[in-house]
Amino acid sequence: MTRLEWSIEGEKQLSRRLRGLENDIKDFSPAFKKSASKLKSIFSRDVFSSRGQVIGEKWKRLSPYTVAQKARQGFPSDPLVRTGKMKNSFTTKYGPREATISNTAEYFKYHQSNKPRSRIPRRVMMKLGNNQKEMVVKEFQNYIRKILAKK
Q: How many domains in the chain?
C-alpha cells in the first residue's frame, strides 16, 4: 500500500492511503514537485504578507522599540523582513516518493522552533493549514486522474 505523508517539525500533518495504485504509479515526482513549489510560494510570500495568518499562526506584533529602531535604520516595519534573506531562502527538493521544503537562512530555526523562549517570539513560517492540506490533496488527485485516464 502506498502512503502519502507530510510532516512539519515531526508532526504528522496530512496522511492519505492510496490503495491499489502502487503498481500503476511508481513515480509521484510531478505531484510532489507541484505541491512543493506551491507550498514554497505560500511560505515565502503569503505567510509574510499575512504575517502568519494564512497558515493559522498569526505573528506577534513587533515591539514599539523594534519598530522605531527599524525605521531609524531605514528598514521595513514588517516582522522578519529586514534584508529579505529569510523570505528568499526557502528551497525545495523532490523525488518519486518525497518532497522537502526547507529554509537555508541560519536564523530561520529560531523563529520556527516550538522550543521555550524568553526573547525572540515564535513566528511560524512553515505549517500546513487546512487550505494548504486541501491544495496538496488536489494536486495528488489531479496527478492520479491523469495517470488513470491514460489507462
A: 1
More reliable by pLDDT, 1 or 67: 67
Contact 103, 126 (CB under 8 A): yes
Residues in Cβ contact with 132 at an 8 Å cutoff, skipping those fewer than 6 apart: 39, 42, 55
End-to-end Cα spacing for the chain: 20
Beta strand residue intervals within 9-54, DSSP E: 11-18
- Residue 93: domain span: 2-149
Give the C-alpha separation, 145 to 142, whole Å.
Answer: 5
Tens of pLDDT, residue by residue over 37-51, are 999 999 999 999 999
**Spatial separation of the C-alpha atoms in residues 54 and 125, rounded to whole Å:** 10
Contacts 24+ apart (CB under 8 A), 142-147: 142/31, 143/28, 143/30, 143/31, 143/34, 144/18, 144/21, 144/25, 144/31, 147/24, 147/25
Element (H, E) at 4: strand 2-8
Can you give the pLDDT at residue 16?
Answer: 63
Residue that wins the pLDDT comparison between 3 and 66: 66
Global pTM value: 0.80
